[in-house]
Amino acid sequence: MQLKIHKDGMLFSVLKEYVSYFVAVALLFAITAINPRFISPMNLSNILSDMSAVLLLSIGVTFILLIGSIDLSIGAMSSCACVIFAVTIPNLGWMGLILALAYGTLAGYLSGLLYVKLKIPSFIATFGTMSVWQSVALIISDGSPQQIGKEFWQYTQWFKIKIGIIPLPFIIAMSIFAILVLVEKKTKFGRTLFAVGGNESAARMAGLNVEGSKILVFALMGLLSAMAGIFFAANLKSGIPTVGEPFTLTAIAAVALGGTSMSGGKGGLIKTLAGVVLVVLIQNGMNVIGVGVFWQKITFGLIILIALYITTDRKRRNLVVK
User: Fold this and answer.
1) Cα-flanking dihedrals φ and ψ of residue 108, to 5°?
2) Is the N end or the C end of the chain the one with fewer CB atoms within 10 Å?
């Protein structure tokens, strides 16, 4: 009898742990039943393409949340990198891509320094840098989209390359995801993230490099945000100074929905992948079945509330995001 109860408990635990995957499959069937075109090769390719930038941002957000912090500037950094890539291509060619990635890394590093060295809460620090990078993007672009001329499309055509129905950006994003899963699971840095989020004082007493790990996480977040911005520019063939703003909410929703705790120390990238799939399916599915844009925003707000309720550790509910 005890063995049966134990097995039932384990089954329930597994179902709870990977509920996002089950919901994603159910949602896939539900939307397909409403509109069979949802699973057409063209739309599936579009879904994978849409997932690429969201996955990159969500990887970074996962690491940020694991240490019990938050980064509100990811959309602004993506927008700024998008504009930098678009406006520097004519003069610098591929160096424009390197410049955009370098900008993102330094921008994230700056947020990490403000948080770690100046002891400014991450919410406040990144709210400030968000405003800065939003303004920089608008200044560089003169407040309007910067089109990439046809003569420079050689620097953006890679975004349209496909292997079957699988787009190259998705392959790139999944490759980065796989590498960082190994980092999360197999390295001291990955273990440090969970330790810091679980009990920072204990992590310090254990001799872990808490401050260095925090700064590195924010720098990585900046790099991934810049990569997402380059994806946006290559896809739209334009540097749009506000393109990344909606994706802050999207990435946080995906990670929270996947099961990573907002209070830190619990979750991981495997769960985040489920959250990303679910969020993109919801977005694409609502478009396919004709849900209005305002209702889509309401839906996303509700998703975040539900996800936070599910993933919040009730034992640590009095803790605030640092």
Assistant:
1) -65, -40
2) N
DSSP 312: S
The span from the CA of 98 to the CA of 110, in Å, is 18
Dist. CA 149–CA 127, nearest whole Å: 34
Strands 238-239 and 166-167: unpaired
Query: How many Cα atoms within 13 Å fall on the side-chain side of residue 150?
Result: 0
Euclidean distance between CA atoms 70 and 2, whole angstroms = 42
The whole-number average pLDDT for the span 226-247 is 96
The span from the CA of 193 to the CA of 65, in Å, is 9
Reading the block at residue 161, the tokens are: 């390359």
> pLDDT confidence of 16, banded at 50, 70, 90?
low
Number of domains comprising the chain: 1
Whether 137 is covered by a domain: the verdict is: yes
Provide the whole-model pTM.
0.90
CA distances from 246 to 78, 97, 132, 177 (A): 11, 22, 17, 22
CATH value at residue 75: 1.10.3470
Weakest-pLDDT range from 70-84, 101-115, 175-189, 273-287:
273-287
Check pLDDT > 90 for residue 102.
Answer: yes
Amino acid at 136: V
- Are 283 and 50 in contact, with CB atoms under 8 Å apart? yes
4 in a structural domain: no
Joined together, the tokens standing for residue 140 give 């560089």
Question: In sequence order, what are the beta bridge partners of 146?
Answer: 239
Residue 303 belongs to some domain of the structure: yes
Identify the domain containing residue 266 by its residue range: 35-316
Chain segment 257-314, per-residue pLDDT in tens: 888 888 888 889 999 998 899 888 888 888 877 777 778 778 767 766 776 676 555 5
The tokens 């004082």 sit on which residue?
201
